[in-house]
Amino acid sequence: MSQSFTCHDTxxxxxxxxxxxxxxxxxxxxxxxxxxxxxxxxxxxxSRIAPSQMxxxxxxxxxxxxxxxxxxxxxxxxxxSGVGTRSLEVFAKLTGERLDTHEHFLGGTAFLTFVLLxxxxxxxAVVPQTTEERAICAGYFDRKQKQQxxxxxxxxxxxxx
Length: 161
What we know:
alpha+beta; five-stranded antiparallel beta sheet
């Protein structure tokens, strides 16, 4: 496939009001709940350029920067930040707004990897345009190499089932 896409072509933004049912015993949003929402939004970015079905292979990195609390607005923005032969990386930025004060904050960032199920399919290139997109995309190959080295060195055979 020779077609290319811009990061903007793959951008998805989704917002949520956080409620009491989203909170843990510390009155902040459950990390697992954030990851569940994040995976769904990021998969939409991946699907923008995927020629066939993809699955989440990894949440490669998630940085919890600032907690989300009751009645905050959570906004997740995702876009494809790197493309391999059969896999792609999606960058996610989680921002918040305190609805009572309208204060904005960065709540977290993440990278997720998705893999094509169709082994014969290929992925188009993705082209960054903004300063943020260029900075994020510039690190893709280093992140991919570190991830591959990490997975190669895991002691899978030593794990007990």
